[in-house]
């Protein structure tokens, strides 16, 4: 009965096939025109593979002739595009991957010609920069799986960042700072949960109130107390790098994955744990049921409200860790509005990752990559104003939201209050 | 919330207005009480602080009496002008709030959450400033409207982008407008340090030409200007648009029930784009009013905080243009007075944000207010404000 | 014989409504008690109280002679009560196993879900009662009839011996209903007791051991099926004599109003839910579209009214193509649409009645001059329609959301009929309404037919289709199985078609 489904190729499908093909061809031509024509023949691009001060075994750097490499990448892009137009490659993921890979690599070849570009360093910093985004995304995943939207992650992270640095500075113990951040995050999220569950406040409005309150409260405390007190309140130091014995000796991979601080490891651990919890335990089953069909869960005796409270609060705690990253996990001091939209970018990562932990982490890595690329390019003195490079993560977020939201399917009851 | 006033329900309406005002008033009161607690905890006297707040926003009544006496006795206006200075400053502060609040309120009416007023504000200000300083030799009657139009258009375009992405692709406007804010800040950093930088040391634009300034009504230092009345006009026009025209009927239908609007043959995409265009324009005008009426130049952090404040006051004004007028005046007084409070009572101005956050919570959760003050509930069909991630 | 369950003097008030007024019922062990009543009679409220979803304001519940206090679903389940809800309580994106185990998940190694154990148990239950359900299947891939069996398994897995079936036949084909009755028989044989809630008289007479009739929140009476007839039950249920047939003269069809050829439509989730449908509707006739819900009828209507884009094919209204035009354009060509979901599509609940009365024509004279709305014509139009269509409302300024379901539907009918129409599309026009409103709306539809409009009625209630239609098209899996003359059709024949079987084929077997 359903075989006619395949008879008719949807015009939408066809359109997306053609547009992907054209995009690849255009990208290929752009690589040639933008980078190929302005690269010196004979210029060499050096990709550094060793990180200063790392324990990893030293390997020789990767030296590539820039111009031939750019031509090759342009050709790959054009060829893939042409093949796509002619035959059609089914996997959207591969197409996006090839498109981004060829363009970004060619861009680096061009930008770093006759210079040295530390690849390992950039991958390492991608992972680090992805961490707060990933924690925000995980907070989103865990609360939205029970159908509670929390756009207040930004505010929660800001407040936790401040709590962490103050607690850590005053006690002189970074772990106390981390715990303070987690508790505060959980507490603020509990407030959000209370408003949207008990009082059925519009979830977006409540989140926005948290953001406004968070910005105001942190700035208030910062200018009223912290600035006057100086280092007495706002100089905690940061979590040290922990090199995992043995594994950190592996070239490239070692410094990227196994020489990080506590919060980075904690994030990766959380991703794995949350994945197992969501799909293999009673708690996860109940969580997913509450997000998809709360009434069904209720009729089977699952306490919908309790499940939502627990998850939103757990989410807040995770966002609290994310907040701690900004201060005690990276610079050791608090600045006003230092989260700079990372909480919102985390939401985009959550959507792109289809509301599951591993997906959310993977897409956070993409954002982290864009962020660290932007920093590296400033150092390389690429002839593009740094302000425009700084826009990259935000533009990327918009593109992802625009391209993906139509296809990503949120939990069915997402954003709806539950009434018995 | 109903659109056209029926003759035989006017009396009912009147009592309705009071009950509509009751919750917002109590919400503000509760916010102030909580603010007082915060001030107390941070080791200052809330009475002193709020005294300074009041004096900073309305002026000292004794000064006013004295000023009037001097004026009638000698015809000298200096004392009088000094006495009304705080009050006019509050109105000056209220002007951009009014525009920005209308912007967010319009979005709410169509079911869109415009968190991007801050970015649209900045872009509007930059556009107005650019037209204001770069074009020389035009008469005011041409130059001023041109500069205003530039600001409105700049903001409108900035708002339309997320509106289009929402309408066409279902991309959530909350995240996208925030991203547009950050892009606007980065763009302005570049503009203020490069193409639009004045000859001086600081990253600011040159001053606009005198022909592009909004006329002021009193001698310096009073900055009260035409912008305030333009904002009131905008509020009236928005009221007319929303409640007296077919276009406004469409906007409200789309906001209240997009499925039914589509069923009734309304074009959702067009309404989303139109509303975000107009909302962006209103937010842009907020920047215009600030740059052409008050500052005459634009610097970094020019629009900081206005976007979130605008949300608070749109909610406080129940997304009704006249309600927004009232709440914008309130915010103008609070913010303007808070500056004095900061200098006189050493309370950071950010206390206002804390109060605002609480006010939003109370407005959004009227049950809390009803519970706190033991008010009986009136059952009503509340319109849905926002939705999930889908379109 | 003992009563396994007794409710005594149950009273439940909602703001402004007395939903249950001192209701007492008794269920005998191993028997089927039918609870009969119209929509809004208070059946569902009563059962939700029994299942612990609502708390009664007054009254007592006895199970096997002992008074019990039911605080929530867990208590009900603990007392051996299981409920099969009218709207299935199943998570579509999860498997049968996951749905069944939800709430009482067995674990292995202390933390991990033990799916295998549950699957085995489902297989056992399925074999014991002849339910034939695959534990590994995802709910969203299962037909409605099987989903209902999953609901029954959920109840049996929790070892319930008192089963509440809430309107279980509403979504089934006549053949699936037969299957359900067989399952009920097996359940009774193995010692279960069942409360069967319905508003369908014939089903009650077919299966019940005892009948209790509810009306407006009170018990009207209890009766044995042997002593009852359809007519007596109908009178008890509605409170007056009702005519079960719609009076209508034979149709006088003329030229085609609507011509649909080889239509394909995708739904929101990109499934091709209408697959090559062709039919026409003539002036002065009613074409009924029958079928179990979810077989493409909704998407067909959306495509006809421009709410969904079409994938392939043509739609012609009075010989002009309308398949690539806007909903507005279609409205203006004289198509009236009574939508399936009246609260989602038909009304803006937070708007006053007078605005809903001009929802599709607000931009036209006399309601608007240019872009300026004209209050006086808007009000007088609403006053007139409210009077003409007997909408029960305090005034025209109240919000549509405050009206009862029947009056909301009347507002839609009034609005749609107040403009000149060539084609009327009525989708589930009487769903959830009381008998009085059903009669009224049916009469109005026939009146439009007699005035010369073409009428397309989509309904999952076979009785409604048979009462209104001149010709009947049966949809199954996005296709039209057959279009037959209403006079020459039988319920059995339609039922087979609704299940995707051509009567000719089945007789060959």
Account of the protein in words:
The complex is a heterotrimer of chains A (420), B (391) and C (509). Chain A is mainly α and 420 residues long. Chain A folds into two domains: 10-119, no CATH class; 130-404, ABC transporter involved in vitamin B12 uptake, BtuC. Chain A has 16 helices and five strands. In chain A, strands 2-1-3 form a three-stranded mixed beta sheet. In chain A, helix 2 runs antiparallel to helix 3 (66-86) and helix 14 (342-352) packs parallel to helix 16. The longest helix of chain A is centred in the C-terminal third of the chain and has 28 residues, at 304-331. Chain B has 391 residues and is an all-alpha fold. Chain B has a single domain, classed as ABC transporter involved in vitamin B12 uptake, BtuC, CATH 1.10.3470. Chain B is built from 15 helices and no strands. Chain B has helices at residues 10-41, 46-58, 61-74, 78-109, 117-134, 140-169, 173-193, 227-244, 246-256, 258-263, 268-295, 306-316, 321-345, 351-364, 366-373. The longest helix of chain B has 32 residues, at 10-41. Chain B is globular and about 70 Å long. In chain C, helix 14 runs parallel beside helix 15 (435-450). Chain C is globular and about 70 Å long. The longest helix of chain C has 16 residues, at 174-189. Chain C has 509 residues and is an alpha/beta fold. Chain C folds into three domains: 3-238, Rossmann fold; 244-334 and 422-509, P-loop containing nucleotide triphosphate hydrolases (Rossmann fold, 3-Layer(aba) Sandwich); 343-419, no CATH class. In chain C, 33% of the residues lie in helices and 27% in strands. The mean pLDDT of chain C is 89. Chain C is built from 18 helices and 24 strands. A six-stranded mixed beta sheet of chain C has the order 6-9-10-3-11-12, sandwiched between helices. Chains in contact: A-B, A-C, B-C.
Structural class of chain A: mainly alpha
Named CATH topology of chain B: ABC transporter involved in vitamin B12 uptake, BtuC
Mean pLDDT of chain A equals 86
Q: Which architecture of chain B per CATH? A: Orthogonal Bundle
Gyration radius of chain B (Cα, Å) is 22 Å
Summed up, the domain count of chain A is 2
CATH class descriptor name of the largest domain in chain A: Mainly Alpha
Annotated CATH topology of the largest domain in chain A: ABC transporter involved in vitamin B12 uptake, BtuC
Report the CATH architecture of the largest domain in chain A. Answer: Orthogonal Bundle
Structural class by sheet pairing and helices of chain B:
mainly alpha
Largest interface, with counts of residues having CB < 8 Å to the other chain, equals: A-B, 51 and 54 residues
Mean pLDDT of chain B: 86
As a whole number of angstroms, the C-alpha radius of gyration of chain A is 23 Å
């Amino acid at each position: 009965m359903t075989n006619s489904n395949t008879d008719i190729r949807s015009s939408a499908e066809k359109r997306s096939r053609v547009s992907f093909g054209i995009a690849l061809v255009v990208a290929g031509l752009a690589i040639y025109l933008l980078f190929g024509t302005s690269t010196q023949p004979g210029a060499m691009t050096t990709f550094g593979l060793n990180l200063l001060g790392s324990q990893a075994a030293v390997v020789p750097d990767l030296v590539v002739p820039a111009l031939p490499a750019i031509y090759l990448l342009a050709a790959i892009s054009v060829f893939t595009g042409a093949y796509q137009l002619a035959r059609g490659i089914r996997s959207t993921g591969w197409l996006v991957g090839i498109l981004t890979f060829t363009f970004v690599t060619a861009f680096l070849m061009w930008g770093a010609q006759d210079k040295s570009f530390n690849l390992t360093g950039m991958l390492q910093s991608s992972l680090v920069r992805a961490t707060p985004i990933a924690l925000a995304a995980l907070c989103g995943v865990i609360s939205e799986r029970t159908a509670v939207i929390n756009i207040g992650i930004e505010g929660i992270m800001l407040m936790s960042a401040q709590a962490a640095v103050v607690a850590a500075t005053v006690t002189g113990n970074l772990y106390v700072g981390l715990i303070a951040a987690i508790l505060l995050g959980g507490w603020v999220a509990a407030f959000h949960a209370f408003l949207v569950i008990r009082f059925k406040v519009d979830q977006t409005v409540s989140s926005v109130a948290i953001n406004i309150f968070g910005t105001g409260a942190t700035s208030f405390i910062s200018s009223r107390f912290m600035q006057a007190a100086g280092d007495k309140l706002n100089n905690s130091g940061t979590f040290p790098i922990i090199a995992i014995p043995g594994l950190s000796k592996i070239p490239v991979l070692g410094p990227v994955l196994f020489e990080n601080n506590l919060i980075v490891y904690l994030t990766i651990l959380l991703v794995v744990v949350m994945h197992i919890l969501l799909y293999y335990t009673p708690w996860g089953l109940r969580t997913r049921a509450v997000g998809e069909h709360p009434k069904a869960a209720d009729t089977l005796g699952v306490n919908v409200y309790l499940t939502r409270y627990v998850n939103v609060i757990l989410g807040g705690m995770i966002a609290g860790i994310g907040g701690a990253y900004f201060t005690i996990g990276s610079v050791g001091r608090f600045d006003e509005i230092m989260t700079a939209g990372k909480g919102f970018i985390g939401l985009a990562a959550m959507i792109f990752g289809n509301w599951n932990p591993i997906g959310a982490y993977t897409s956070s890595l993409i954002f982290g990559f864009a962020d660290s690329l932007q920093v590296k390019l400033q150092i390389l003195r690429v002839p593009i104003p740094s302000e425009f490079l700084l826009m990259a993560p935000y533009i990327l977020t918009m593109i992802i939201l625009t391209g993906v939201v139509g296809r990503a399917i949120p939990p069915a009851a997402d954003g709806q209050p539950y009434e018995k | 919330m109903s659109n056209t006033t029926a003759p035989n329900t006017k009396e009912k309406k009147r009592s309705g207005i009071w009950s509509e005002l009751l919750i917002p008033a109590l919400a503000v009161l509760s916010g102030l009480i909580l603010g007082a607690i915060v001030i107390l905890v941070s080791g200052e006297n809330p009475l002193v602080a709020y005294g300074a707040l009041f004096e900073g926003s309305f002026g000292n009544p004794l000064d006013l009496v004295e000023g009037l006496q001097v004026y009638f006795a000698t015809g000298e206006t200096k004392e009088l002008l000094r006495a009304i200075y705080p009050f006019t400053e509050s109105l000056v502060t209220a002007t951009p709030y009014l525009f920005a609040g209308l912007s967010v309120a319009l979005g709410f009416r169509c079911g869109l959450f415009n968190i991007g007023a801050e970015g649209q504000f900045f872009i509007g200000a930059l556009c107005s400033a650019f037209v204001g300083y770069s074009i020389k030799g035009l008469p005011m009657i041409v130059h001023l409207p041109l500069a205003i139009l530039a600001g409105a258009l700049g903001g409108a375009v900035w708002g339309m982008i997320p509106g289009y992405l929402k309408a066409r692709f279902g991309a959530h406007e909350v995240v996208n407008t925030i991203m547009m804010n950050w892009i606007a800040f980065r763009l302005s950093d570049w503009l203020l340090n490069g193409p639009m930088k004045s000859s001086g040391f600081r990253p600011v634009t040159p001053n606009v030409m005198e022909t592009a300034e909004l006329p002021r009504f009193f001698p310096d230092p009073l900055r009260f200007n035409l912008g305030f009345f333009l904002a009131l006009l905008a509020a009236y026009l928005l009221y007319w648009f929303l409640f007296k025209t077919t276009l406004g009927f469409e906007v409200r239908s789309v906001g209240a029930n997009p499925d039914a609007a589509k069923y009734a043959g309304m074009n959702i995409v067009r309404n989303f784009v139109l509303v975000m265009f107009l909302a962006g324009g209103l937010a842009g005008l907020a920047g215009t009013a600030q740059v052409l009426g008050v500052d005459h130049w634009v610097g970094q952090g020019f629009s900081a905080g206005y976007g979130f404040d605008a949300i608070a006051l749109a909610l406080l004004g129940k997304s009704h243009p006249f309600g927004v007028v009232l709440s914008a005046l309130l915010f103008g007084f609070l913010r303007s007075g808070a500056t004095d409070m900061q200098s006189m009572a050493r309370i950071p101005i950010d206390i206002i944000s804390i109060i605002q956050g609480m006010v939003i919570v109370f407005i959004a959760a009227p049950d809390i207010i009803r519970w706190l003050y033991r008010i009986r509930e009136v059952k009503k069909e509340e319109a849905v404000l926002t939705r999930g991630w889908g379109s | 014989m003992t009563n396994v369950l007794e409710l005594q003097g149950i009273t439940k008030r909602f703001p402004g409504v007395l939903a249950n007024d001192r209701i007492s019922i008794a269920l005998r062990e191993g028997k089927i008690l039918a609870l009969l009543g119209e929509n809004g009679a208070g059946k569902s409220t009563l059962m939700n109280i029994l299942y612990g979803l609502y708390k009664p304001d007054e009254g007592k519940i006895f199970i096997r002679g002992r008074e019990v206090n039911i605080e929530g679903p867990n208590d009900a389940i603990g007392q051996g009560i299981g409920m099969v809800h009218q709207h299935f309580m199943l998570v579509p994106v999860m498997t049968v196993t996951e749905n069944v185990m939800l709430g009482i998940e067995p674990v292995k190694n202390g933390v991990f879900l033990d799916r295998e154990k549950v699957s085995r148990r489902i297989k056992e239950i399925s074999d014991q009662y002849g339910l034939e359900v695959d534990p590994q299947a995802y709910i969203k891939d299962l037909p409605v009839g099987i989903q209902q069996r999953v609901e029954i398994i959920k109840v049996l897995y929790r070892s319930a011996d008192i089963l509440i079936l809430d309107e279980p036949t509403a979504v089934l084909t006549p053949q699936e209903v037969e299957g359900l009755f067989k399952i009920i028989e097996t359940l009774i044989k193995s010692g279960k007791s069942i409360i069967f809630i319905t508003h369908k008289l014939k089903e009650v007479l077919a299966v019940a051991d005892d009948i209790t009739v509810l009306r407006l929140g009170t018990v009207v009476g209890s009766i044995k099926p042997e002593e009852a007839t359809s007519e007596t039950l109908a009178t008890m249920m509605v409170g007056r004599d009702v005519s079960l047939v719609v009076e209508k003269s034979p149709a006088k069809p003329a030229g085609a109003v609507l011509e649909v050829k080889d239509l394909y439509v995708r739904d929101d989730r990109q499934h091709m839910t209408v697959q090559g449908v062709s039919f026409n509707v003539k002036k002065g006739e009613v074409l009924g579209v029958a079928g179990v819900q979810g077989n493409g009828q909704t998407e067909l209507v959306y495509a006809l009214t421009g709410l969904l884009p079409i994938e392939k094919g043509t739609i012609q209204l009075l010989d002009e193509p309308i398949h690539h035009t806007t909903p507005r354009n279609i409205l203006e060509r004289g198509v009236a649409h009574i939508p399936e979901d009246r609260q989602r599509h038909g009304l803006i609940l937070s708007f006053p009645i007078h605005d809903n009365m001009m929802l599709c024509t607000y931009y036209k004279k006399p309601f608007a001059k240019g872009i300026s709305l004209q209050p006086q014509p808007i009000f007088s139009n609403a006053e007139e329609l409210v009077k003409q269509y007997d909408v029960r409302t305090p005034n025209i300024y109240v919000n549509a959301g405050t009206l009862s379901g029947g009056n909301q539907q009347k507002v839609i009918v009034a609005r749609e009929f107040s403009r000149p129409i060539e084609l009327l599309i009525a989708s589930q026009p009487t769903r959830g309404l009381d008998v009085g409103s059903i009669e009224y709306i049916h009469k109005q539809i026939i009146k439009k037919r007699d005035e010369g409009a073409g009428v397309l009625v989509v309904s999952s209630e076979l009785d409604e289709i048979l009462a209104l239609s001149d010709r009947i098209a049966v949809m199954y899996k996005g296709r039209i199985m057959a279009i037959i003359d209403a006079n020459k059709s039988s319920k059995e024949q339609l039922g087979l078609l609704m299940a995707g079987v051509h009567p000719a084929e089945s007789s060959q077997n």
